Amino acid sequence: MPRFASVLLVDPRGWVLLQERDADPVIDPDRWGLVGGHLDDGEEFEPAAYRELAEETGIELSPGSLSLWLDTTVFHVATGTDDAVQVWVAPTKLTDADVVLGEGRRIVFVDPARALGLELAASAAQILPQFLSSNDYRNLVNP
């Protein structure tokens, strides 16, 4: 079963870091998704979350900065598989100016009121509404 590690960073406004995917990926091209990706062979979820965040955004967080928020599965139509997904979260004071685009069309902080109206990737469509309605999200905005 494919495994994915995803990261949701939340800025002081409560905006979440999302990636607008380009036309190249097999899974959910041209849709908005969470930062993250496949685990390498033998890799654990937590190190993969930090690696994917750095590869896709240039943001390198110290170990222990991310907290596991969700361990779930997501069905991907393109592959016909239920894939293991872990979502790691953290508050941040970073801005769009701190993001160095490493993959996709763009990666930016998005107003949660706007985020749910975007064309979302399967994982984001499943995970983002749950996250934005959670106490964990509220606690990241108002620590």
Structure, explained:
- There is one protein chain.
- This protein is α+β, with helices and mostly antiparallel strands and 143 residues long.
- It has one domain: Nucleoside Triphosphate Pyrophosphohydrolase.
- 24% of the residues lie in helices and 31% in strands.
- The chain has a four-stranded mixed beta sheet with strand order 4-1-6-5, with helices on both faces.
- A hairpin with a 4-residue loop joins β5 and β6.
Q: What is the straight-line distance between the termini?
A: 36 Å
Please tell me how large the radius of gyration is: 14 Å
CATH fold annotation: Nucleoside Triphosphate Pyrophosphohydrolase
The level 1 CATH classification is: Alpha Beta
User: How would you name the CATH homologous superfamily?
Assistant: Nucleoside Triphosphate Pyrophosphohydrolase
The average pLDDT score comes to 96
Strand content range = 25-35%
Structural class: alpha+beta
Number of helices: 4
Can you tell me the CATH architecture?
Alpha-Beta Complex
| Number of distinct beta strands | 7
- Quaternary class: single chain
Helix content: 10-25%
Number of domains: 1
Main sheet record: 4 strands, mixed
Task: Give keywords.
4 helices, 143 residues, four-stranded mixed sheet, alpha+beta
